[in-house]
Write a structure and sequence with these properties.
Blueprint lengths: L8 H9 L6 H11 L6 H13 L2 E3 L7 H12 L13 E4 L4 H8 L5 E5 L10 H13 L4 E5 L2 H5 L3 H15 L3 E5 L8 H13 L4 E3 L11 H18 L4 E3 L7 H14 L16 H15 L12
Parallel strand pairs: 1-2, 2-3, 3-4, 4-5, 5-6, 6-7
Helix pairs in contact: 2-10, 3-11, 3-12, 4-5, 6-8, 9-10, 10-11
Length: 309
């Protein structure tokens, strides 16, 4: 498939609807089969550390405070202060008005500061507001912007509007990376997930992300499989690598490891890196830390051993 210049909605429609359809039964069966794989002993320890290093530790609530953000960022840099061998997480993700607070805490630790923008989580605002939202976050020190697409425009077939909005937000990002949230729970079909993935990549997105975490279902294995196939095929055809971020519903170490197996078996080991794969899940971090400690000491920590998120 050749990438159109997006000179018209018709050219985008023709390209996106020319993609091969997704075999829903096959995708469900493939994801379910990979989800049964087990990883044990030394490999499990490596997988846990890899998963920790891929977490985007997130707080996106109306009641967020500066203190809550600072505590979360401290945990991102040192997930277990008693064990310096635990890797730091990949990033923290906050609202634009709290970016400066997060930036101050993570400093030069290597933890990225991500910010949701573009009228998150609905995406229902003017392009001018979305661009201003993005610019504010970048000016405050955001390394990454998580934007949400206009699902209404996408579902009504106005692909050009979505394409041009992603391009405009990408330009407003400057040096910051752009993660494009598809909100797959509202896209209804796997074919739509594949089309939205390609649209986001064609428009310049650096990552494609399943969900805002506010809509269910969120990061299911089959949806993530479809998106991993999309980035794999996009690199094969266009020569550009794009990351994937499942977000929402990843709560246990078992869930996280299933995602890593899915990445390895679908897109390939090149994506097994925080630069190319993230886990948008805060609640999973404590379980990863508990399982890691169990492998080290032979016993589980108490429920109050790690800080709550």
């Amino acid at each position: 498939m050749s990438i159109p210049t997006a000179s018209s909605n018709a050219s985008l429609r023709a390209s996106l609807h020319g993609l091969p359809g997704v075999d829903r039964v096959g995708a469900d069966a493939r994801a379910a089969g990979l989800g049964t794989r087990s990883i044990k002993t030394t490999a499990k320890r490596q997988a846990i550390d890899m998963a920790i290093s891929m977490v985007d530790l997130t707080t996106l609530e109306g009641a967020d405070t500066r203190g809550k953000v600072r505590a979360m960022c401290a945990k991102a840099v040192h997930p277990d202060p008693t064990d310096p061998t635990v890797p730091r997480v990949a990033a923290v993700c906050v609202y634009p008005d709290l970016v400066a607070e997060a930036r101050d805490v993570v400093g030069s630790s290597g933890v990225k500061v991500a910010s949701v923008a573009t009228a998150f989580p609905s995406g229902r605002s003017s392009l001018e507001v979305k661009v201003a939202d993005t610019a504010m976050a970048v000016a405050a020190g955001a390394d990454e912007i998580d934007m949400v697409i206009d699902r209404g425009a996408f579902l009504s077939g106005d692909y050009l509007k979505v394409f041009e909005e992603i391009q405009a937000i990408k330009e407003a990002c400057g040096e910051a990376h752009l993660k494009v949230i598809l909100e797959t729970g509202e896209l209804a079909t796997y074919d739509n997930v594949r089309r939205a993935s390609w649209l986001a990549m064609m428009a310049g997105g650096d990552f494609i992300k399943t969900s805002t975490g506010k809509v269910q279902p969120a990061a299911t294995l089959p949806v993530t499989l479809v998106m991993l196939e999309a980035v794999r095929d996009f690199r094969d055809r266009e020569g550009r690598m794009v990351g994937v971020k499942p977000a929402g519903g990843i709560r246990t170490t078992k869930d996280a490891i299933k995602m890593l197996v899915l990445v390895n078996e679908t897109a390939g080991p090149d994506w097994l890196d925080p630069d190319w794969f993230r886990l948008g899940a805060s609640s999973v971090l404590n379980d990863l830390l508990m399982q890691r400690q169990k492998l080290t000491t032979g016993r589980y920590a108490g429920p109050d051993y790690f800080t709550l998120d």
